[in-house]
Amino acid sequence: MIHKSLSIVVATGLIGAATLLGAAPANARETEPSEPPRVELVLDVSGSMRAADIDGETRIAVAKRAFNKVVDALPENTQLGIRVLGATYPGKNKKIACKDTQQIVPVGPVNAVQAKNAIATLKPTGYTPIGLALKKAAEDLGDTGSVRRIVLITDGEDTCTPPDPCEVARELAAQGTHLVVDTLGLTPDEKTRKQLVCISTATGGTYAAAKSEQELTDRVQQLVDRAAVPPPVQPAVVTGTADCTNAPLLAPGVYTDREKISEHRYYRVAVQPDQELRASVSISLDRALNPDYGVLLKAASKDGRELVRGVDAGSGRADVLSAGLRWSADEQKADARASAEAADSDADEHGETTSTELCLIVSNSFASTATAADAPGMPVELSIDLVDASHAPDAPGLGRGFLFLLVLAIAGLVAGVLAGWITRYWVATWREN
User: 95 and 152 share a domain?
Assistant: First the structure.
């Protein structure tokens, strides 16, 4: 879910799996959302928003005007909602204050007048229950299968932990692949920045800081516009297993899963004799980890023999680790035959070679810090592609090599004789003169 790209580069499957043997493979197909993308703006209205340090005005005044401009410029198909936190309870009872979050505009086609009136009444008041507000915002957006986006705008870190907003973001991301949280910090300090980066990273979102009204307006508008355009491909959700026997059989495509620290997850892929497997994996490091870590992608035969591996490792700050591999039966015929024999599938009743079923294993050598939770697992994106095998040209045989040496020897002999005759003729001519 790096710096290497968050997103990481993956290949989309091009070859169908109708001819694969065994159980029907999981398919990662491009799907259309059931309804337009949905987005909810979550605005911090806690007491700190009274600070007058943005262009000489209060943070809340700048945020209100930015919201109004965004509402006026909304794309027609946008399903927008607005939720606030810390907006109503002025007291000191933290138990009550940390439940202070309300949806002031329901998610749906926006009535601009209604939205502006709701925003105009906001006054900086209480605490900052970001974790709870994120949970409620996810409930507001529902789970209709469409792309969902939360845009969190705050000037400070959560003051109501638990629940920890980073843990909430990871839990929300683990529930599906269609929810993204983008975060915007209004003149944020370092602690706030780290928390907002953690929230956005956990869900594949973005973080930005705004120190002026124009920056805030532009950034919110950009995020809302982006939410209105669904991504072209949504990875299919798949669950790897602890061994190869019961692992899901994957067709070409892009998949998403979750892997815990030091866990091994197994998948299966069937490769035809004339095909080459190309696979890659990316793991998003959405929490603090100890230095010196790595990710391993390995292809093995069903009897456990390793065929090929790809590995990536890091020590400093990284957002994503990626590894890839390629394998074809044509390049490793001995391994393919042995694997097929182990699976009793090296030939059909007509004596023709059938597919080789491989195990793909994704594992990691991560170690968490004392404060990092193990669950939910870190986001994994797995890419599977099957292409025509690249046949290596045949090398010259032993006979061809000797023939080449013989031709060189004869050519050298002829050249030597000619050189001798020419030299003798030149010497004889020189003496006569």
Answer: yes
Angle between helical axes of 165-174 and 190-203 (0-180°, round to 10): 10
* 421 HSE (CA, 13 A, CB side): 6
Predicted TM-score (pTM) of this structure: 0.65
Task: For residues 51 and 155, state if they share a domain.
Answer: yes
The string of pLDDT tens digits covering residues 362-407 is 998 888 766 666 778 888 889 999 888 766 555 555 455 667 778 8
Pairing of strands 179-186, 101-108: unpaired
- The residues pairing with 293 across neighbouring beta strands, listed in sequence order, are 314
Q: Minimal CA–CA distance to 116: which of 150, 76, 66, 183?
A: 66
- Residue 227, token pair as written in the block: 């939410």
Check: CB of residue 314 under 8 Å from CB of residue 321: yes
CA–CA distance, 328 with 260 (Å, rounded to integer): 30
Instruction: Give me the pLDDT at residue 265, please.
Output: 93
- Contacts of residue 191, Cβ cutoff 8 Å, sequence gap at least 6: 157
What crossing angle do the helices spanning 59-72 and 213-227 adopt, rounded to 10°? Answer: 40
Q: CB–CB of 357/268 below 8 Å?
A: yes
Give the pLDDT of residue 22: 38
Residue 142's domain spans which residues? Answer: 38-227
Distances (CA, A) of 359 to 167, 231, 270, 328, 366: 32, 30, 9, 14, 22
Determine the pLDDT at residue 371: 61
Same domain, 153 and 217: yes
In the three-class reduction of DSSP (H, G, I as helix; E, B as strand; rest coil), residue 171 is classed as helix
Residue ranges in the chain modelled with pLDDT below 50: 1-23, 29-33, 336, 343, 345-352, 398
Q: Are residues 281 and 222 in the same domain?
A: no
Assign 186 to helix, strand or coil: strand
* Residues 142 and 178 placed together within one structural domain of the fold: yes
Is 183 found in the same domain as 269? no
**For residue 148, what pLDDT is reported?**
85
* End position of a domain, from candidates 199, 227, 255: 227
